[in-house]
Amino acid sequence: MTQQPINTILFDLDGTLLPLDQDQFIQDYFSRFVRKGQDLGYASEMLAIALQSGITAMVQNDGTLTNKERFDLVFEEVSGIDAEEFNERFASFYEHEFGFLKRHATPSPLAREIVHEVKEKGYTVVLATTPLFPWQGTKARIDWASLDSSQFSLVTTYEDFHHAKPNLGYYRQILQQIGKEASSCLMVGNDVEEDMVAQTLGMEVYLVTDCLINSTNKSTASYRTGSLQELAIFCKELPPCNH
């Protein structure tokens, strides 16, 4: 497959293992987040600005804080709300309202088949979803995809990670935590900017085209590409992994 055999596969979640209308999902997420905040007595316009500011701060995180710490800091600065208090009052959002966002996903049985296939062959498997959500929101989306967090050696969430895609620091932290070299990894994702950037570090990449995101219309000629169905076939044809 490559000059150095691949022994680790990183999978993106939204739009990859979990086919998803990203724009509708994000729009609905913002709407429900603000509505929940309103129900708790917070001003809607201020919440929307604080949420957007917090997300932007995580995407631009310099690595000195975790994404959660960065979000809480900026959210508190912008909103004037104590972040710890807000998080406690808001926790039920991910147990209840967040579940309604599943309607923007079209889960495929191929996801479980693909992950099972590479696990059986001995590959280390990472769920490399950009860490902008807390664990509860990440676990919910894993469940929507009919997957289980125990199938992955690492799941990236905002509590533990210090960068977000497409920052290369995000991928470097994954490599550090799993003790792997970039050249032994394959990154599978649907976003040209956020996922295929892993190629810069020396990873092999696979661009899943079902829910393709290519906001800058970049050429995809240098990437292995295919549908989720074609990815399933590709994984079946992978050799057993010899770590």
Automatic annotation (TrEMBL):
Gene3D superfamilies: HAD superfamily/HAD-like. It comes from the Bacteria. Keywords: Hydrolase. GO terms for molecular function: hydrolase activity. The keyword Hydrolase applies. Transmembrane segments: none annotated. InterPro entries: HAD-like_sf (IPR036412), HAD_sf (IPR023214), S-2-haloacid_dehalogenase (IPR051540). This is HAD family hydrolase.
